[in-house]
């Protein structure tokens, strides 16, 4: 007899598995064997100084960069490549653009720069990809977009243009736009770094809500408070390697001098 609810739950598999991943740009070896697992419905915060390879790692998960070595699995499936049988031998083959697009469709990404379409209203920005990429009917796309914009606190701004919004509002539109594609993973690359300090909280609030709703998230940020309160896992990278990782309380007990120095600089 199982003696707790936990014993009855199926053992869950990582949703993202990064295995001994390397990345080189020519001679520049940027990622030097990254291993990382992200469990479903958890938040992983990645910390690290500029140039440590954080963006490169996120971009590889979303296949905006190719993998030089190692493997990344998302939802149990290797990304970017597949094994095929060729003359009684198994060989690795690059996926077609269509197959890559399908894998990427599970993942939403939000960048430091919001990159909204300036000539479209807030509502049109959020409806664009569901209609033109996912083939959703216009009425359905509108209904959903309005709900997502309400979720990010912008129900009153749906007919505004991006230039009429603050940076924090624009970033919240960018989040709604990503969510509108129904991703099951969200990647955030320094989503609040371009914002005035007083606008950071409203964006972090939306991210926290997403996390509470069970979204699997990887977040590169220097917001230590967010990491402490929301992260299930914190990863400190430096020089293309994971220097320390663990539960959020590693922030309060950094083991290495490199992590200690980094925290001193950002706190
Ligand atoms: P972080 O996000 O932690 O600041 P990045 O992943 O952006 O770090 O960059 C890591 C290193 O890789 C840096 O030295 C950067 O200059 C280099 N780099 C990033 N993108 C490219 C690229 N497309 N071509 C060449 N070098 C790059
Ligand atoms: Mg970066």
Automatic annotation (TrEMBL):
Keyword annotations of the record: ATP-binding, Cell membrane, Membrane, Nucleotide-binding, Transport
Domain ABC transporter: 16-263
PANTHER family to which the protein is assigned, alphabetical: AMINO ACID IMPORT ATP-BINDING PROTEIN, L-CYSTINE IMPORT ATP-BINDING PROTEIN TCYN
Record CDD domains: ABC_HisP_GlnQ
Main localization of the protein described in the UniProt heading: membrane
Top-level taxon of origin: Bacteria
RNA-binding in keyword set: no
SMART domains associated with the record: AAA
Cellular location(s): Cell membrane
Membrane topology summary: Peripheral membrane protein
Protein name (Swiss-Prot/TrEMBL): Amino acid ABC transporter ATP-binding protein
Organism: Alloscardovia venturai
Molecular function in Gene Ontology: ATP binding
InterPro entries, sorted: AAA+_ATPase (IPR003593), ABC_ATPase_HisP-typ (IPR030679), ABC_transporter-like_ATP-bd (IPR003439), ABC_transporter-like_CS (IPR017871), MetN_ABC_transporter-like (IPR050086), P-loop_NTPase (IPR027417)
């Amino acid at each position: 007899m199982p003696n707790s609810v936990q014993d009855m739950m199926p053992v869950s598999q990582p949703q993202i598995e990064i295995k001994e991943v390397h990345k080189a740009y020519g001679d520049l070896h940027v990622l030097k064997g990254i291993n990382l697992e992200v469990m479903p419905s958890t938040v992983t915060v990645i910390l690290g100084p500029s140039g440590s390879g954080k963006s490169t790692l996120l971009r590889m998960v979303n296949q905006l960069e190719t993998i030089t070595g190692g493997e990344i699995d998302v939802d149990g499936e290797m990304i970017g490549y597949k094994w095929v049988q060729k003359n009684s031998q198994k060989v690795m083959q690059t996926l077609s653009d269509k197959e890559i697009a399908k894998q990427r469709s599970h993942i939403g990404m939000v960048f430091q720069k919001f990159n909204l379409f300036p000539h479209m209203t807030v509502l049109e920005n959020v409806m664009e990809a569901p209609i033109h990429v996912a083939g959703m009917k216009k009425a359905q796309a509108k209904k959903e977009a309005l709900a997502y914009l309400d979720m990010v606190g912008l129900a009153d701004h749906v007919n505004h243009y991006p230039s009429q919004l603050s940076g924090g509002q624009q970033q919240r539109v960018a989040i709604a736009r990503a969510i509108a594609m129904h991703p099951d993973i969200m990647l955030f690359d320094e989503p609040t770094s371009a914002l005035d300090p007083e606008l950071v909280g409203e964006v972090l609030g939306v991210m926290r809500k997403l996390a509470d709703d069970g979204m699997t998230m990887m977040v590169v940020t220097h917001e230590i408070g967010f990491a402490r309160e929301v992260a299930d896992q914190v990863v400190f990278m430096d020089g293309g390697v994971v220097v320390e990782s663990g539960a959020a309380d590693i922030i309060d007990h950094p083991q290495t001098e490199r992590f200690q120095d980094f925290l001193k600089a950002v706190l």
